[in-house]
Write a structure and sequence with these properties.
The radius of gyration is 15 Å and the shape is elongated. It is an alpha+beta fold and 101 residues long. The chain has one domain: SUI1-like domain (Translation Initiation Factor Eif1), CATH 3.30.780.10. The termini are far apart. A five-stranded mixed beta sheet has the order 3-4-2-1-5, covered by helices on one side. The longest helix has 12 residues, at 52-63. 15% of the residues are buried. A hairpin with a 5-residue loop joins strand 1 (27-33) and strand 2. It has helices spanning 17-24, 52-63, 81-90, and strands at 27-33, 39-44, 67-70, 73-77, 98-100.
């Protein structure tokens, strides 16, 4: 039995909602100095339509770091600002909509 997407009406296998959501987003990547001088990379601007948990998992694997997801904001341990943009582009986000601050 095929599950139907509530938003687009297509079967789950053919659903394009996440792809469309990725194309609309403006993502900001920035570094923040936290307690005791530790650097944290913040990725803001992910909408609710995108699977942020999957993105977090992929970033943590590729960057070999820890991280968390709070209110659809990805927080990665360490200074990874220079590497995150290339990984997000490989995950399907448009390069011109990723702003590295």
């Amino acid at each position: 039995m095929n599950d139907i997407c509530a938003k687009c009406g297509l079967p789950k296998e053919l659903c394009i909602c996440e792809t469309l959501a990725k194309e609309k987003e403006v993502i900001k990547v920035l570094n923040v100095r936290r307690r005791y001088g530790k650097m944290t990379t913040i990725i803001q601007g992910l909408s609710k339509d995108v699977d942020a948990k999957n993105i977090l998992k992929e970033l943590k694997t590729k960057l070999a770091c820890g991280g968390t997801l709070k209110d659809n904001v990805v927080e990665l341990q360490g200074d990874h600002k220079s590497k995150v943009k290339a990984i997000l582009v490989k995950l399907g986000f448009p390069e011109d909509q990723i702003e590295v601050c």
